[in-house]
Amino acid sequence: MVAGGVTWGDRLAVAIGLAALFLIWQGGTMLFAVPDYILPRPLDIAAAIVERRDPITQALIVTGTETIAGFLIGAAVGVGLAVCLVLVPPLEPLLMPLAVAINAVPSVAFVPLALIWFGLGMGSKIAMAVLAVGFIVLLNALSGLKKPEQGHIDLMRSFGAGRIGILWRLRLPAAMPSIATGLRVGLGRSTIAVIVAEMLGAYDGIGQIVYQSTAQVDYLNVWAAVLAAMLGSLALYGCLVAIDRKLIWWR
């Protein structure tokens, strides 16, 4: 059977791979008596997540809200800028060097500025996610919008289509796979940006749990927060992939 392009065999392979990883991890740490501060046992991490589920769940909700909000805003900004650059070509040589220059600096370098400008609340984390997502979506959207061949564009113009009509009926459908790829990459970047920003200054969130637990030398709680963040990220990524397969059916 096939569900959304993924066969049950694929799902079984993933399940077997995860089970094998769990067994190797658990067995290796027990066999070699690896200290918890280096690599805790997965069962101990799972127990820590269950024991501290309330604060971890609350932190996941905060981090997830910041990530999703920044991701959506950043995606809209990226696609919007790409559309503007395609509709008004003279803007590209003016704006792209600035965008490249900003992206050339690691996003973590902007965290102190975001904390100063937007405070320790959600605003600074959302701003960092927007910065992390916007550029990669801009590049992919711009590349996709330029995919249609000039002959196809000229054909639509011969039937009286204007720039907006060509954009809506030709360029955007052609760009959707590239935009979807940018969104997938951008989602991971936004999660990283939010957690790093939380570690440097926040009232709540997974990053703050990691920071506080590290300061308290509670490495088991660090791993519990990291694993919870990984599972949350996988859930968000799975939702994005499902939407991608539903909307971009022709790919």
Mind explaining what this structure looks like?
The chain is built from ten helices and two strands. The relative contact order is 0.13. Strand 1 (2-3) and strand 2 form a beta hairpin. The longest helix is centred in the last third of the chain and has 38 residues, at 163-200. It has 251 residues and is mainly α. The model has no long low-confidence stretch (mean pLDDT 88). The protein has a domain at 53-148 and 176-247: Orthogonal Bundle (MetI-like fold). It has a two-stranded antiparallel sheet. The chain is globular. It has helices at 8-31, 42-51, 53-87, 92-104, 111-118, 122-145, 150-158, 163-200, 206-215, 219-247, and strands spanning 2-3, 6-7. It is found in: Cell membrane. Keywords: Cell membrane, Membrane, Transmembrane, Transmembrane helix, Transport. The chain crosses the membrane at residues 12-34, 68-88, 100-120, 126-145, 222-243.
